[in-house]
Design a protein that fits this description.
Chain B: This is Xanthine dehydrogenase subunit D. Chain B: GO terms for molecular function: iron ion binding; oxidoreductase activity. Chain B: It comes from Paenibacillus oryzae. Chain A: This is FAD-binding PCMH-type domain-containing protein. The structure holds 2 protein chains of 2 kinds. By secondary structure, chain A is of the alpha+beta class. Chain A folds into 3 domains: about 55 residues, Uridine Diphospho-n-acetylenolpyruvylglucosamine Reductase, domain 2 (2-Layer Sandwich), CATH 3.30.43.10; about 120 residues, 2-Layer Sandwich (Uridine Diphospho-n-acetylenolpyruvylglucosamine Reductase, domain 3); about 140 residues, Enolase-like, domain 1, CATH 3.30.390. Chain A contains 13 helices and 14 strands. In chain A, the strands form 3 sheets. Chain A has a 5-stranded antiparallel β-sheet with strand order 5-6-9-7-8. A 5-stranded antiparallel β-sheet of chain A has the order 10-11-12-13-14, sandwiched between helices. In chain A, a hairpin with a 2-residue loop joins strand 13 and strand 14. In chain A, helix 5 runs antiparallel to helix 8 and helix 12 runs antiparallel to helix 13. The longest helix of chain A has 21 residues. The radius of gyration of chain A is 21 Å and the shape is globular. Chain B is an alpha+beta fold. In chain B, helix 15 links the parallel strand 20 and strand 21. Chain B has a 7-stranded mixed β-sheet with strand order 3-5-1-12-9-10-11, with helices on both faces. In chain B, strands 7-16-15-14-8 form a 5-stranded mixed β-sheet. The chains are: A alpha+beta, B alpha+beta. At the A-B interface, strand 1, helix 2, helix 12 and helix 13 of A face helix 4, strand 6 and helix 22 of B. Bound molecules: flavin-adenine dinucleotide. Flavin-adenine dinucleotide binds next to strand 3, helix 2, helix 6, helix 7 and strand 9 of chain A. Flavin-adenine dinucleotide (FAD) binds next to strand 3, helix 2, helix 6, helix 7 and strand 9 of chain A.
């Protein structure tokens, strides 16, 4: 058997328009790669997880997508794909409206990397830790795919749709995060919600009459388990948002899990189980099982698939238990 | 004494290399560059075990910028290295035994050119079956990695009749313990600059922990007299034992001599992980028994160490593990059998703790299991069995009388953390609010040998004098790799001579400028320095005062060395009270040097203290240490957090308080990594954790907020050896203390490190149902 090392030359292009970037990618095919912060790619190249490209398409020239804007009319925060994770972490606008995103980006890598790493790169990598939070926030992406205009697609659809939705060479330009009135921080805060909101419970197959008269407050949280306390790849990430009534019934709950190489995903069965239901100890056990069943994890050298599922279910159920305890 | 910044007071000295290290201005040897230098790169094997069918370098030779391409054909001397047995080829010619094995080396004008040329070297391999399991490697039909077979070394120690004694035991516990392949993870990867001098000599600027040993090994490889080689080996960006053996030096030296130009080599992290040493993974099988009163009667140990592809220090590491598997305990019937086995899993070698970490984890865990079985307090069990002052050492050898084990035992027994355990056991401490958080306390202890041990040359000594330019010059063949030896020498010298730090010139890590007083390993340097200076300082003081006496016309008995020069004793005594600016020495060191006419140099020369009994590897000096920790286990995830730790260390007088704290803290962080995170994963002989994104070491957020050190300084009367080494003891007892604390918290006995979170985590609803009921 003979082994040869090949000679590689890498070209760097710095397009200044979206279309040019797109065209370079289409012409270059698999050897041409968009590079934003380059933090993930750099490790992939070094680890041999991705072959070194023949053409680097720098996205820095497309600077208009580096901003955080509160669009009050649309009731949304719009974050440019080239915004660095550190900029997001320090953004008062994000802190005020989507604090779980702050929690998620703060748990990614270390300051030096967060200053280079972009939100777009985190999303395009599919398994980024921020994705678990963005998914529970119902984020929408603005994409460019060479067409005359920009396209909108829900992050959820983009992830679930596979390659046929994402296609080859789609540029992520913006992340649009709807602001839900009074959706709060990491822990529950009281909110005076009338019976109108209870309708949300009706999308549950198990909708219970007792939920209807409840006083609701919103909650939301994000949790990451890494292999050590900080500066660590994730083993498990989970996030949840929803409303909890005074009498212990849930409504409008969304839950996600991700971590490691797993694609973050919604836990639909567990959501359906919770919504409109009053939860006691036995239903927590059922919920735990549903989460484990709904969790699609990828085991590796450091943590098995079963362990990841168990931890995801533990983290979510524990936080809900704490909420119920008040 | 609780040792910290406050208690150290004025002796808390900024280390001389501190500011440059903190600001990043310090230049390491791998930062050196000279005009016209070439860059070296080494081609390492693609396979963990293969036959080399052909090596073709023709294309590489033609590549741009290439000055030399070397293979096994180009080694003028011995094509091998290894501190004990030189069985690691400089360049492999027929067989490769691990993925770090070198096949060729290239010098080119740039690193990129060197890498490109490497890619043009064509090696034809025939892969061979890979030996990954040391126990299977000992089976008859296993592929043989070396002409002498797969067994590197065996140990066999016994006393009494353990087998029979087990029958008299009221309690017997049997355990199997596994320890990980920990990586040194130094910040500075291996490398250096290799300069062929016009005189025909070769200067090597590259990290090692024993410059003279590198000189000897390189002289064998290069077929060049030792005197023709100069090794400059300090400062070093971390070593922990990992740079004691040769690494890139043979390639740098050969390329420099082949091209006649300076050559720089600096491993990437990947190259470092692939080629570098690791801690020996060990499997320890122990059977330990005691009578009804908790007296240990019998202890049987089997050790299997995975030594990887080559010998390096695998033999001595196994000796150390064997000795330390018996501990500071009186056990009448003992049998320890160890074996160190060649595999294709990288190369295992020297690493802080030197085989003690593995044995101590297993032994201390055994004692905890016995205590649990008998319903005894684990710390009381240790006290019942603790050795006494004049007892022989673990292998029955004569050792220096020591009260260390008892001192550290008492310290931990009275420590706040241990008292908290007792409160927990009485239910007096509130448990954390979340039912899935469990707290526990554990402790462990040992006595850890210093010096290389019986049967191994272990020269000590040093040089002290007055240079022609009026500096008090001290020279030792030590290296500074962060442990603080320069600070320690500076403090010892200023305190013993009464001089100012600016009066000193400390020379280390340079075979041309220092005497040969051994390696900077095995927790030996501080003791060597102390013994040398105890001899040298009175001698140099006497000479300096005599010269001063002639010049000043005062009797030498009225003079003494002090800041800036020699002082009248009265003036020196009153120095503190009077205005510092007007007080001045009678004669400055510069004037003394001028008066002397030539440099004064005094040498001390001795052997490191060694046991008189012919027990190979057995030690004579020990440092006793014990640690207590409090942990919190999160049952949602199985994650273990260390909340608080307390270390008791009986190592004689504290020479350098900041260095002492630094060594114990640093050692304990390494031990925490060993216990909770670290393991270089191999599959089929190929390392999988190639960088610090997958090989995780503890970060600042993982370190316990509480950290307390009790430095026990009292030594038995007339102890001649002064301060003992503390470079390793911070890293040897924390892991068993952590596993004991985990057991205390959740009732699970850990047999394998790093602790698997999957073994500890639970299912939340079960936890809630058991413990808390309805929310
Ligand atoms: C040491 C280290 C630690 C890390 N820790 C974490 C962690 O804890 N959690 C975590 O989630 N990640 C972590 N990462 C991964 C990485 O830093 C983040 O995912 C980061 O957000 C990626 O952003 P980037 O701009 O650097 O992406 P790049 O590396 O530039 O690109 C990543 C991928 O996205 C594509 N891409 C980038 N931008 C766009 C775009 N606008 N449109 C379409 N495709 C695009 C690229 O082609 C590439 O395939 C870590 C990385 C390192 C090196």
């Amino acid at each position: 058997m003979a082994v040869h090392y090949g000679k590689r030359t890498v070209k760097v292009a710095e397009p200044s328009t979206l279309y040019e970037a797109w065209r370079l990618k289409q012409e270059g095919g698999a050897g041409a790669v968009y590079v934003a912060g380059g933090t993930l790619l750099r490790t992939q190249w070094e680890n041999g997880a991705a072959t070194a490209p023949s053409l680097i398409i720098g996205l820095d020239g497309v600077m208009e997508y580096r901003s955080i804007v509160l669009n009050a009319n649309k009731g949304a925060i719009v974050i440019g794909a080239l915004t660095s994770l550190e900029e997001i972490r320090r953004s008062p606008v994000v802190a005020a409206h989507v604090p779980i995103l702050i929690k998620a980006v703060s748990a990614i890598a270390a300051p030096s990397i967060r200053r280079l790493a972009t939100l777009g790169g985190n999303i395009a990598s599919l398994s980024g830790d921020a994705v678990t939070a963005l998914l529970v926030l119902d984020a929408e992406l603005t994409l460019f795919r060479g067409g005359p205009g920009l396209e909108k697609v829900l992050l959820k659809d983009w992830l679930e749709g596979g390659e046929c939705v994402r296609g080859s060479g789609a540029l992520v330009l913006e992340v649009v995060i709807p602001i839900v009135q009074d959706i709060p921080a990491f822990s529950a805060i009281p909110a005076s919600q009338g019976a109108d909101d209870i309708g949300a419970g009706s999308d549950s197959a198990n909708g219970m009459a007792s939920a209807v008269q409840d006083e609701f407050r919103s909650f939301g949280f994000f949790e990451k388990l890494g292999r050590r306390e900080a500066f660590t790849p994730s083993v498990v990430t989970v996030a949840a948002m929803g409303r909890l009534g005074e009498k212990g019934s849930f409504a409008k709950v969304k839950m996600t899990a991700g971590g490691g190489a797993a694609l973050p995903h919604r836990l639909y069965e567990a959501e359906r189980f919770l919504n409109g239901r009053r939860v006691g100890p036995s239903s927590l056990a059922e919920l735990h099982t549903l989460i484990m069943e709904g969790c699609a994890s990828a085991g590796d050298l450091f943590a098995s698939t079963d362990y990841r599922k168990e931890v995801a279910a533990n983290l979510l159920t524990a936080r809900l238990w704490e909420l119920l305890k008040g | 004494m609780l040792l910290n910044r406050e208690s150290a007071g004025k002796r808390w000295k900024t280390r001389p290399d501190g500011p440059a290290k903190v600001t990043g201005s310090l230049s390491y040897l791998t930062d050196l560059s000279v005009p016209g230098m070439l860059h070296g790169k080494v081609l390492r094997s693609l396979y963990p075990h293969a036959r080399i069918m052909a090596i073709s370098i023709d294309e590489a030779l033609k590549a741009p910028g290439v000055a030399a391409v070397l293979t096994h054909r180009d080694v003028p001397g011995l094509n091998g290295f290894g501190i004990v047995t030189p069985d690691q080829p400089v360049f492999c010619s027929e067989v490769v035994r691990y993925t770090g094995d070198a096949i060729a080396a290239i010098a080119a004008e740039t690193v990129e050119q060197a890498l490109y040329a490497l890619s043009l070297i064509q090696v034809d391999y025939e892969p061979l079956p890979v030996v990954t399991d040391p126990e299977k490697a000992l089976l008859e039909d296993a592929p043989q990695l070396h002409p002498g077979g797969n067994m590197l070394h065996r140990t066999d120690y016994s006393r009494g009749e353990p087998e029979q004694a087990f029958e008299d035991c009221a309690y017997v516990t049997e355990g199997i313990y596994y320890t990980p392949r920990q990586m040194h993870a130094y910040m500075e990867t291996e490398g250096g600059l290799f300069v062929p001098e016009e005189s025909g000599r070769l200067t090597v600027y590259a990290a090692t922990q024993h410059g003279f040993k590198d000189r000897m090994q390189l002289s064998r490889i290069l077929a060049m007299p030792e005197e023709q080689i100069r090794i400059v080996s300090s400062p070093i960006g971390g070593s922990f034992g990992g740079k004691d053996e040769l690494n890139v030096q043979p390639y740098g030296a050969l390329l420099a001599l082949a091209t006649g130009k300076p050559v720089k080599i600096h491993n990437s992290r990947r190259e470092s992980v692939t080629a570098g040493l690791k801690r020996h993974p060990m499997k320890l099988t122990m059977k330990t028994g005691m009578d009804r009163d908790g007296k240990l009667l019998a202890h049987e140990v089997k050790i299997v160490a995975d030594t990887g592809a080559y010998s390096t220090l695998g033999g001595p590491v196994l000796n150390f593990a064997t000795e330390h598997s018996i501990g500071p305990y009186r056990i009448p019937h003992v049998s320890v059998k160890g074996v160190s086995v060649f595999t294709n899993n990288g190369v295992s070698g020297e690493f802080r703790g030197f085989g003690g970490n593995q044995s101590i984890f297993a032994l201390e865990s055994q004692l905890d299991r016995l205590a649990a079985a008998a319903g005894m307090d684990p710390w009381v069990l240790r006290r019942i069995n603790l050795r006494e002052r004049d007892d022989p050492g673990p292998l029955g050898q004569t050792v220096l009388p020591s009260e260390g084990p008892e001192q550290v035992w008492r310290s931990v027994a009275a420590s706040p953390i241990w008292l908290r355990k007792e409160q927990m056991d009485r239910g007096e401490i509130k448990t954390p609010p979340s039912p899935w958080l469990k707290r526990g306390v554990g402790a462990a202890m040992t006595m850890h040998g210093s010096g290389l041990g019986y049967g191994i040359p272990d020269p000590g000594g040093g040089r002290l004098g007055l240079s022609a330019d009026g500096k008090l010059e001290a020279a030792f063949s030590f290296e500074e790799f962060g442990q603080g030896i320069t600070a320690t020498l500076e403090i010892m010298l200023t305190e013993m001579l009464g001089c100012h730090r600016d009066d000193l010139r400390i020379v280390i890590g340079d075979t041309d400028r220092t005497p040969h007083n051994g390696s900077s390993t095995a927790s030996r340097s501080t003791t060597v320095a102390y013994m040398a200076l105890k001899d040298l300082v009175p001698r140099i003081s006497e000479i300096l005062c005599r010269i001063a006496s002639l010049a000043a016309g005062l009797p030498a008995s009225e003079l003494q060395t002090g800041p800036g020069g020699v002082w009248h004793k009265v003036a020196a005594g009153g120095y503190k009270k009077r205005d510092k600016k007007t007080a001045s020495p009678l004669i400055t060191y510069a004037e003394l040097a001028a008066a002397a006419g030539e440099a004064i140099q005094l040498e001390a020369d001795f052997h490191f203290p060694v046991t008189p009994d012919p027990v190979v590897g057995g030690h004579y000096l020990y440092t006793a240490t014990a640690a207590a920790v409090e942990v919190e286990v999160n049952l949602l995830t199985g994650a273990v957090s260390v909340l608080d730790q307390y270390h008791a260390v009986a190592a004689g007088p504290v020479v350098n308080p900041m260095g002492y704290v630094g060594q114990i803290e640093g050692g304990s962080v390494m031990a925490q990594g060993f216990a909770l995170f670290e393991d270089v994963c191999f599959s089929e002989g190929v390392p999988r954790t190639m960088n610090f994104d997958t090989y995780l070491i503890p970060g600042i957020c993982d370190i316990s907020p509480g950290f307390h050190i009790d430095a026990i300084q009292e030594l038995p009367q007339d102890d001649p050896y002064g301060p003992r080494g503390i470079g390793e003891v911070g890293s040897v007892v924390l892991a068993p203390a952590i596993t004991a604390a985990v057991h205390h918290a959740v009732g699970i006995s850990i047999g394998k490190l790093p602790i698997s979170r999957e073994e500890l985590s639970g299912i939340l609803p079960d936890l809630l149902a058991e413990k808390v009921g309805t929310p």
